[in-house]
Amino acid sequence: MEGERHLLPTEIAAMLSASRLVEMRPERNGWWRVVPTGLVGAVRVGDVQVEVWPKEKVELTHLMFMLGYASNPGFLPTDVAAEQYDELWPALAESLARQAERALLHGVLQGYQTVDESSMVVRGRIRVGDQLRRQTGLPFPLEITYDEYLTDIAENRILRTALRRMQAVPRIPADVKARLSHLDNRLTGVGILRAGVARPPWMATRLNSRYHAALRLSEIILANASAQAGPGSTNVAAFVVSMWKVFEDFVTTALRESLSRRGERSEMQYPAFLDEPRLDGRARVKMNVDLVHFAGRRPATVFDAKYKALNSSSSSPNADQYQMFAYCTALEVKRAVLVYAGKAQPITRRVAFTDIDVTEHPLDLSQTPAEMLGALDLLAASFTSA
Fold this sequence. Notes:
Elements: E1 4-7, H1 10-18, E2 22-26, E3 31-36, E4 40-45, E5 48-52, H2 60-71, H3 88-103, E6 111-119, E7 125-126, H4 128-134, E8 142-150, H5 154-167, H6 174-186, H7 212-224, E9 225-229, E10 235-241, H8 243-261, E11 266-273, E12 286-295, E13 298-306, H9 318-331, E14 335-341, E15 347-350, E16 357-363, H10 369-381
Parallel strand pairs: 13-14, 14-16
Antiparallel strand pairs: 1-3, 2-3, 4-5, 4-10, 6-8, 7-8, 9-10, 11-12, 12-13, 15-16
Helix pairs in contact: 2-8, 3-5, 3-6, 3-7, 5-6, 5-7, 8-10
């Protein structure tokens, strides 16, 4: 049976299971078999920590870079300071502390925020509709709207919420936790985002440029990490991601960016149908191609990212080849590229009795982030019309 056996209290096992990182299978006398679910990351329940990484371990800095770059191509490898720690949580906490310190070095960012309130004095403009509806027949208070220059803006809310979340993680190094607390105190008066509520949008500008790195890292933490109080005095923290989704998003974003720099058009998650429209009106077979590169108005190349190792013969699974053939046939495309995680040499296969070529292109995740981007840039360049 797969997994490792551990002697754990039932409540601890239940909280580990709730993280979705592992499945907890009960055995006799308080023993549990801890089985990975296919996700990667770390969960900490009090003094118990479980980490799950791919067999060919992706460096923490690489994982964080791929996560960040997929959501924002402006993300840099230097945005994560993980080298000095072997564990995820201290590395995340240190990285956030560093970036927040740089962001707040010259003071807390301020911006204009639109405020709606009832007031006894005129300020800004009167909301006539609200005034008639809420204060019928009364001259005061006035329903007004005005812009105020303050610190309670989207950038500071995102940053402070990330700081709070990391402070709730158990067993963070004391010096790092003190720095996080100090930074949190500097943002006094800034609202905390509630769990489950969408993050407020922000736009990268010259005025908030010193916040960019801190905000990119904060959004990764808010999207993938949770920290809360469990039963009694037990604190629970989890950072769980789907590695196949991280890999797919990183590869397709990097290829799209490379094609865009060359003036080429491409679309991610391109919608298509495998079959022709039906006369009886029944639903068609939908497809979503990871990335489609266009030549003019027509699809020219399809790309698909698969986070799985090649088999013993250094070839991709048959099902993946069939999938690419289906994409090419439905979109009338002659070139397809499967990007895998691995170190083998690229290979191109011609589908029998057709003019369709399917290329298997491994991406070595042990490379530095710059080398990975460079490899994908070369791949994109080989399929452009230039």
